[in-house]
Amino acid sequence: MNDWIKAARLRTLPLSMSGIIVGSFIARWRILEEGGTWDWRIFLVALLVTLLYQILSNFANDYGDGIKGTDKLRANEAEQRAVASGRITALQMRNAVILFVVLSLIATVALLYLAFFRENLMNEFYIFVGLGIACILAAVGYTVGKKPYGYLGLGDVFVFIFFGLVSVCGSYFLFTKTFHWDMLLPATAIGMLSASVLNLNNMRDIESDALSGKKTLALRLGFKKAMVYEIILLQLPLLLILVFMMMNGLHTKGNYYAFIFFILMFPLMAVRRRIMQVKDPKELDPFLKQIGVLTLVMSLMVAFGLNYF
Question: How far apart, in whole angstroms, are the C-alpha atoms of residue 30 and residue 72?
Answer without folding.
Answer: 49
